Amino acid sequence: MALALVVASAPARAAVDLMLTGAEGALADNLSAHIDTQVALESDLAGRFYRDQVRESLQHAAEALGYYQAQFDITLEASPEDWQLDVAVTPGPRIRVRRVDVRITGDGADDRVLAALRERLPLRAGEPLNHADYERSKRALANEARQRGYFDDRFSTAELAVNVEAGWAEATLVMDTGERYALGDVTFSASPFRERFLRRLVPFESGSPYTAGAVADFNRRLLDSGYFSDAQVETRRDAGPPGRVPVRAAVTTRERNTVTTGAGYSTDEGPRLQLGYQRHYVNDRGHQLSSQLRLSTVRQSVEARYEIPLADPINDHLTLSTAWENADIEDTSSERYSVRLARRQTFTSGWTRTQSLRWLEERFSVGVERGRSRLILPGISFSRTRSRGGLDPDWGDQQRYSLEVASEPLGSDVDIARLRLDNTWLRSLGKAHRFKLSAHLGGVATSDFEQTPTSLRFFAGGDQSVRGFAWRSLGPEDDNGDVIGGRYLTTGSGEYSYGLSDDWRLATFVDAGNAYRDPSAFDPAVGTGFGVRWSSPVGPLRLDLAWGVSRDDVPFRLHFSIGPPF
Fold it and tell me: What is the average per-residue pLDDT within 191-218?
C-alpha cells in the first residue's frame, strides 16, 4: 500500500527524449522505430519497467536484421520536465544467409512463372539476414500462386534456421500449390447485345488455366469497347464445380447516343468549330455510327462512318466512311468527295495495320492550273503511338507509314503511288528538361503530275511543319510565284523545353525542310524561335514566336495550337 502511494504521488513527466549511438543506416532506423518514446513515466519504478521493455524491443529489432549478438548499454535518467533515454549500441557480427532452398510441388511444380519468381525472391544466399526478406519471399510465392489459380496452396515446410555462434542462417520453403483451377463459364448481366457478340469480348476460353491477369484483361476490354459506362468482372470459386472458377460480368450499358460540340483555334486554320454525333450501338451486334462536321475559315468538311466489329471487337474493325471537304488555302483550292472501306487491326505489339480502298473525286485549282481527277486508291498503313503522362505526355513516340496507289487500268484517271513516312520522338530528362524530335518524308510517283489532286501533293510550312512560314506556303512555285505543291517532302524539327513549374514550360526550336519537285531542287527552308507551353485542363496549349531565317526578308509568324504533341 505504501508503494502504491509513492507511485501515485510522483509527478508525471513528458515524453522520453531518445539519444541512440553506435548504430547507422537501416539498423539505427529499425531500432528507433521499435522504441516508444510517447510515454508518460510516473515514477522511477515505471522507468525501470520501461527500460526493460526497451531492451527487449531492441533485441527483437536487431535480430530482425540479423544482429543476434548486439549489445545495448541503456541509461534512463529523470529531469524535472522529461526523461532522457541514452542507448549505446554495439551491433556485433551480422548473420549471413548461407543457403536458401525453395521448392514447389503440386500442379505448379512445372509452372515457368513460379520458377522464374523463385529466382527473384528477396531472400538470397550470400546476403545479410533480414527477417523481412524471409516473410516477403513467402508472401510473394503465395500471392503469385493465387494469381495463377493455385487457390489451395500451402507451405508444407517454412523454416528459418539461425546458428548464432557460427554466424549463418538457412531458409527452407516448400510450397505445395495443390491443383490449378480453370476459368469456368462466363455469364453477363442484362444488356441490349446478343450473347454471341458479348462472347467475342471475352479474351479466354472456358476451361483454360486461371490467371488474375486474364480476368483483369476481360474487365479492361469491356470498358475499352465503348459500349459500357461501367463493368465489374467477378469470380466466385464456391459457385462452380470443383476446380472451376465461374466468371460473372456485371455491365452498365452507356447512353445510346452522344452529341459533342467543340471549338478551337490554330494559326494554320484560324477559329474552328466542330459538331459530332455518335450512335454507340446501332444493333445487338455492336455496329456503330458516327458523323462529324468541321468548320474553319479555310476548310469545311462533313464525314460519316459506319463501323462493324469483326472477330475481335476491340482490335479488329471494318469501317465504311464517306466524306466531303472544301478547302481554300494559300494558292490552292479544292473540293473533294470520297468513299472509303477500311479494315483496321491492332496487334499485341501496339502496331495498327489499316488496309483500305478509297474512291476519290477531287476538283482543284492550284495557281493558274485547273483539274479534276477521279481515283480508286488501294492503300495500306502501319502506325504505333506510345505515351506516358496523360494529356500532356513527358515520354512517347509516334510512327506512321502509309502507301496509296492508283492505276489507270483499274479505273483511275492517272497513275499514282504515294508514300508517306512520319516519326515523332519525345523524351524527358528529369522533370525540367524535355526534348522533341520529328521527321517527315514523302514521295509521289505519277504519270501526270498536273492531274494529281492537291490533297495528294506535298506542301510544307505551318504549326506542324516548318514554323515561321504560313501553312502550306512552302513548295515548288509556278511562273506567277504561286505554290503548286511538290512530288517530295522532307522536313525535320528539334525542340527543347524547360519546365518552370508543373504546368508551364519555356521552349526553343529549329525546323527545317521543304516540298520539292525534283531531288536536285531541294532547298530547305529554316525556321527558328521560342515559345511557351501550358498544360491546360483541356490539353497542352502551345504559343510560338517563329522567324523564317532562311529568307532574306525573315518572315515572322505567331503559331498557336491546342492538343497533344502527336
Answer: 96
Of the listed ranges 198-212, 214-228, 235-249, 374-388, the one predicted with least confidence: 235-249
Positions of E strands within 254-394: 257-266, 270-279, 288-296, 299-309, 316-329, 332-346, 352-366, 369-388
* Cα–Cα distance list, 147 to 55, 110, 211 (Å): 41, 16, 6
| CB 233 within 8 Å of CB 222 | yes
- Yes or no: say if 62 and 91 are a contact pair by the CB < 8 Å rule: yes
Q: What is the pLDDT of residues 298-353, one digit of tens each?
A: 999 999 999 999 999 999 999 999 999 999 988 889 999 999 999 999 999 999 99
352, three cell numbers: 495498327
User: How many whole angstroms separate alpha carbon 498 and alpha carbon 430?
Assistant: 10
Q: Which residue has the cell 509521289?
A: 444
- The four Cα atoms 550, 553, 554, 560 give a dihedral, to 10 degrees, of -120
Burial 480-500 (b: 16+ CB within 10 A, else e): eebbbbbbbbbbbbebebebe
Residue 6 confidence (pLDDT)? 33
- At 84 the three-state DSSP class reads strand
How many alpha carbons fall within 13 Å on the CB side of residue 132?
Answer: 8
Q: Report the C-alpha dihedral over residues 188, 190, 193, 196, rounded to 10 degrees.
A: 30
Angle between helices 131-147 and 44-64 (to 10 degrees): 60
Give residue for cell 492517272: 414
Percent of the chain with pLDDT over 70: 97
Task: For residue 182, give the H/E element and its range.
Answer: strand 182-188
- Please state, in angstroms and rounded to a whole number, the distance separating the CA atoms of residues 375 and 412: 4
- Say yes or no to pLDDT of 227 above 90: yes
The upper half-sphere exposure of residue 110, i.e. CA atoms within 13 Å in the direction of its Cβ, equals 1
Share of the chain above pLDDT 90, in %: 84
Interior angle at CA 71, CA 67 and CA 100, nearest 5? 10
